[in-house]
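Q: Start with the shorter request: fold the first protein.
A: Done. Sequence, then structure:
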Amino acid sequence: MANPLKGEVEVKLGSKTYKCRLTIDALVRIEDELDKGILELATAISEAKVRVRTLIVVLRNALRGGGNDFDDKKIGQIISEVGIVVASTEVAKLLVTTLTDNDSEEEVDKKKVEA
């Protein structure tokens, strides 16, 4: 089970759910390997302008951060089994969850209640 307090996110790919985590180090590795900023990647995925290689790179780093030891070949097989649309959707959710500052949203909601 993923621990959101540690930045862990559950990603459902087919019949399996995987624990993932994108640390700052992982985000830097993704940006370096793909030569794009993480926000640029998230935008491209949301606009359906994503390459399979991008999905593999993001998933590899996220899965390894979650304690899984998958190589590109295994991740490619998973994407092939679930389909590119499902994989893209899950990667998009993963990036949104990772890049969203949930603490600030909770603070805003708390201030609304106090007002």
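Q: Next, the second protein, separately.
A: Sequence, then structure:
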Amino acid sequence: MRKWFVSLTLMGMGSLGWLFLSERGRDAGRWMHENLGDRETMKGWNQSAQNELERIQAALDRVAAALDARPTEQHRA
């Protein structure tokens, strides 16, 4: 991985340079700001993501409880 670090860093910096310095990159940035900057849309997405995370957490809690309730070799001895 160490020998790829410099190459990957230069590629990433070149991509950011293209994004901020080219006309097409600036157009893409403007489009993102105009279309993805709607606060109400983002609030709705954030709430949906939060609900999904809570649902996943509840499922993980159920799995953990089921694993704790299952007898293991140590409990049987």
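Q: Describe the second briefly.
A: Residues 1-37 form one domain. The chain has a mean pLDDT of 80.
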